[in-house]
Amino acid sequence: MSASGGTKAIVAALGANLAIAAAKFVAFLFSGSSSMLAESVHSLADSGNQALLLVGGKKAQREATPQHPFGYGRERYIYAFLVSIVLFSVGGMFAVYEGYEKIRHPHELDNWYWPVGVLVFAIIAEGFSFRTAIKESNPLRGDHSWKEFIRRAKAPELPVVLLEDFGALVGLVLALGGVGLALLTDDGVWDGIGTLCIGILLILIALVLAAETKSLLLGESAGVDEVKKIETALVDGNTVTGIIHMRTLHLGPEELLVAAKIAVQHDDTAAEVASAINAAESRIREAVPIARVIYLEPDIYSEAEAAKGPDLEATPGGPAQTGH
Question: Regarding predicted confidence, which is higher, 6 or 170?
Fold first, then answer.
């Protein structure tokens, strides 16, 4: 994900959510609708989440230090994980509690036109934010479905904004339904039910975000396409005759570590092997520009050793990605 694309989507979402949060809170003050209170807290939490994403993106740009030799790229994953926690606790749990209380102690809505008008405005504003996120995501999504894009994306910002905006739009429809049914039936319980549904929705979205960002924090490999490009770039068929085993790891959304044991000819000189390794590194960086940290270990290929299968102690993490 390009930093500019993610930042544009985040800023659009932040501006929309701040305006919507203020409008929803005003509507709550005039109407007493618990759906509006839950939605105002939801929008305020979303605004804080976008601020967290911007801070994470800024901190991730720091230069590497002796204490953190691979840089700070994973700051973006940490702040995205914090977003899921905020969405779960501040947004979801608060809405569930507020909905439960409103169902137990319902009351009529005052000045119904305030919540209805604000909800319509909020749907328009959130729709604009959601459209921006979709527009920025499409070039990166390619032929993948939205589900695959959210699961496979190495940069967390756009998936987070997409899920937040989608959840916000569904939540607004639920709030509008709750307010509308409360007005039609003259029963404030429906307002509480709408609030409860908003809370459950936010908790589910938060759990999805937490699962995806947890995977990124643990360390994910390069995508299938990138792995194939690296494999093709590594082997020149002359000095580097094959890949014995290889590991890739995202140090951040736009920085990849590649470590591989490569097969070389048994009669090659040290100078020839060193030259071949340098050439292989150049080919990898040309094929996959984000492969910035590369470690290649030369070895003599042995059919007898290969027949034994991967050495799990030498290559931790399970079976090797490839073997020749």
Answer: 170
